[in-house]
Design a protein that fits this description.
This protein has 1 helix and 9 strands, in the order H-E-E-E-E-E-E-E-E-E. A hairpin with a 2-residue loop joins strand 8 and strand 9. With about 130 residues, the protein is mainly beta.
Length: about 130
């Protein structure tokens, strides 16, 4: 039962195209929380074990791609006999609307959580329109 629960929590990325992939490791979809305020969207993606130099974020046209790479831990003098947690990288793709200010996107990673701040463009911000008396 515990193994089934872990497998449900960690989903492998399913390829939706017939393209060959150049990376040999498994890819998982990181669980992501999205918070919205009037000024921005904040994405929090869980990528355990990924450090700053292992994160690659690309923005091409309206497609934001997050990739996280981590190296499997090595224990010199030991052979892996049993593993309950599958090792691999992380990949998640988001389609952005034109309401996001692409030049203002910020990213940081801490304790295996990637934080992306996507500010809304000025034209997408709510504004108050004053009413004039005639």
């Amino acid at each position: 039962m515990a193994n089934e629960l872990m497998e449900m929590n960690k989903q492998e990325v399913m390829s939706r195209d017939d393209a060959e992939h150049t990376r040999t490791q498994k890819l998982y979809t990181p669980a992501t929380d999205i918070h919205e305020t009037q000024e921005q969207l904040t994405l929090l993606a869980d990528m355990p074990g990924v450090k700053q130099d292992g994160v690659e974020i690309t923005l091409e046209q309206n497609i934001l791609t997050i990739y996280g790479h981590l190296d499997a831990p090595e224990f010199p003098g030991y052979n892996l006999t049993y593993a309950e947690y599958g090792m691999g990288g992380y990949r998640r793709v988001f389609a952005l609307s034109n309401e996001i200010d692409r030049d203002g996107i910020q990213a940081s990673v801490k304790n295996g959580v990637l934080k992306l701040i996507l500010p809304k463009s000025k034209r997408a911000m709510p504004r108050k329109i004053s009413v004039q008396a005639e």
